[in-house]
Amino acid sequence: MSGIAFIVSAPSGSGKTTLCKMAADRFPDLRISVSYTTRKPRHGEVNGVDYWFVDEETFAAMVERGEFLEYADVYGKRYGTSRKDLEDLLEKGVSVILEIDVQGAAKVREKLEGGVFVFVLPPSLKAAEERLVARGKDTTEEIRRRLGIAAGEIKRAVDYDYIVINDDLRRAFEEFSAVITAEKSRSCRMAGKLKELFGGLVG
Ligand code: ADP
Ligand code: 5GP
After folding, report:
1. Which ligand has an atom closest to residue 168 CA?
2. Per-residue confidence at 202, pLDDT binned at 50, 70, 90?
3. Residue 41: pLDDT band by 50, 70, 90 thresholds?
4. Angle at 58 between CA 49 and CA 70, to 5 degrees
């Protein structure tokens, strides 16, 4: 029994975190992976829930010990996914969302079999900017820095298995949920269930 890894990338302000949290609420066997980062917590963010917030030395030591499945520098800070945290969940049959940037996703594609790659887009760059301003948690300079990188990130959308355009949140969430449901129903992932229900009939 193994859970599914959903790798979700998006330009900042697309609504990726919002959609992932909604999915984790809807699907009881789905968790969001908690990454490590050297960025400072935003107002309201909780250590161990939104991220593990660590200093540069701690992050560098984890890199040195090979503890990350992938890590990348994003918007001037370091972010990484713990290999052990992810493997422990997948082995228990729990599916996991990795909210990671395009560099990290490319590394996961090389290292992990069976991942499902989803790219979330805002309806426009202007909308992404407006959402980041309305979110009110980043400085004007930080928002500018993030939007400056967005065009390069959007070019990578075609490398992903699915694209969800987050214009209307409810509609986008139904699309994202449909992807999750369809992936869970793939026949290659149903062997255990088939055996449980029909035993000898399915070998
Ligand atoms: P990301 O993780 O992609 O940077 P967030 O999920 O933090 O983005 O969303 C950025 C802001 O946009 C948040 O304030 C969120 O509530 C809002 N938001 C998310 N989706 C939509 C949407 N479809 N329409 C309008 N605002 C949205
Ligand atoms: P934020 O600072 O807005 O929380 O995240 C900034 C960017 O870092 C987002 O694109 C997010 O997906 C990415 N990110 C978060 N965690 C990880 C991670 O563990 N690895 C990588 N490569 N990117 C991450």
Report:
1. 1
2. confident
3. very high
4. 70
Continuous H helices in the chain: 16-26, 56-64, 83-91, 102-111, 125-135, 140-154, 169-184, 191-198
Q: Is the CB of 9 under 6 A from ligand 1?
A: no
Q: In percent, how much of the chain has pLDDT > 70? A: 99
Domain architecture of the chain: domains with CATH: 5-186 (3.40.50.300)
3-state secondary structure of 152: helix
User: Which ligand is the nearest neighbour of the Cα of 72?
Assistant: 2
Tens of pLDDT, residue by residue over 60-93, are: 999 999 999 999 999 999 999 999 999 999 999 9
Residue nearest to atom 23 of ligand 1 (CA): 169
Residue type, position 50, single letter: D
